[in-house]
């Protein structure tokens, strides 16, 4: 178990479904861990299980776990020292990135009318996604993990946290369709919102739910919205298949 920050190592009801045949298992396992690190689920500096425990958690051989860790050490995401164990790096490598601007209203129009395949839901006390942004949190959230579908296309895998007070205003609506358009219908006040996009590879779980190849290019979007007090009322991690996303960006001088 992880010893620092009191943050549990991600627990899966069953090990992720790795593709066989497919990319090497160590590369698929590295994809899973890389995504957990870059999404903030595994915080900076946190200690991971040892190789034997990791192999048991993911249902792979110890040598596969070692190869995955070695790959992430080379990328600068993990550190591994004898006697001290395996840790997430305290500072991740800096990636060049593009600023891509849109508006909350444009997002509402883009995703309204989508249907939802609910994978998991629960009432929770906190939102781990907020750690990266250092934002004040709501007293409680409703967590949902789901797939969004529009015109027969599975266009997003999403994990989101919605202020429980807002969720309780229209739980049936929030369960049936995309959250942001319902927030707009309820006239929820959003004083500040931000999203960050990076390009990555599909983890085995994401690939399974979106119907794409493991390791296929995906757009990873981290998004939050705050009310007037600065409290985070919505936070989400959204994964879009790379070939189903297009950004139209006006270039200004």
List keywords for this structure.
253 residues, 2 domains, single chain, Chorismate lyase, 8 helices, Arc Repressor Mutant, subunit A, alpha+beta, two-stranded antiparallel ribbon, 27% strand, 6-stranded antiparallel sheet, disordered N terminus, DNA-binding
Describe this structure in words.
With 253 residues, the chain is of the alpha+beta class. The chain folds into two domains: 1-92, Orthogonal Bundle (Arc Repressor Mutant, subunit A); 98-247, 3-Layer(aba) Sandwich (Chorismate lyase). Helices cover 26% and strands 27% of the residues. The chain is built from eight helices and eight strands. A six-stranded antiparallel sheet has the order 3-4-5-8-7-6. A hairpin with a 2-residue loop joins β4 and β5. The termini are far apart. The model is unreliable at 1-7 (pLDDT under 50).
């Amino acid at each position: 178990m992880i010893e620092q920050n009191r943050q549990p190592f991600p627990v899966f009801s069953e090990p992720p479904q790795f593709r066989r045949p497919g990319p090497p298992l160590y590369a698929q396992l590295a994809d899973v861990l890389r995504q957990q690190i870059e999404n903030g689920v595994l915080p900076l500096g946190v200690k991971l299980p040892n190789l034997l425990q990791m192999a048991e958690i993911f249902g792979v051989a110890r040598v596969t776990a070692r190869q995955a860790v070695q790959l992430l050490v080379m990328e600068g995401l993990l550190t591994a020292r004898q006697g001290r164990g395996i840790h997430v790096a305290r500072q991740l490598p800096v990636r060049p990135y593009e600023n891509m601007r849109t508006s909350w209203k444009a997002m509402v129009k883009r995703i309204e009318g989508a249907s939802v395949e609910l994978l998991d839901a629960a009432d929770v006390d906190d939102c781990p996604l907020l750690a990266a942004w250092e934002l004040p949190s709501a007293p409680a959230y409703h967590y949902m993990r789901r797939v969004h579908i529009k015109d027969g296309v599975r266009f997003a895998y999403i994990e989101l946290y919605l202020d429980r007070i807002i969720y309780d205003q229209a739980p049936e609506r929030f369960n049936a369709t995309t959250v942001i358009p319902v927030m707009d219908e309820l006239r929820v006040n959003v004083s500040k919102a931000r999203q960050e996009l990076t390009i990555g590879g599909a983890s085995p779980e994401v690939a399974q739910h979106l119907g794409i190849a493991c390791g296929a290019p995906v757009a990873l979007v981290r998004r939050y919205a705050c009310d007037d007090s600065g409290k985070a009322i919505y936070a989400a991690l959204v994964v879009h298949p790379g070939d189903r996303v297009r950004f139209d960006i006006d270039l200004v001088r």
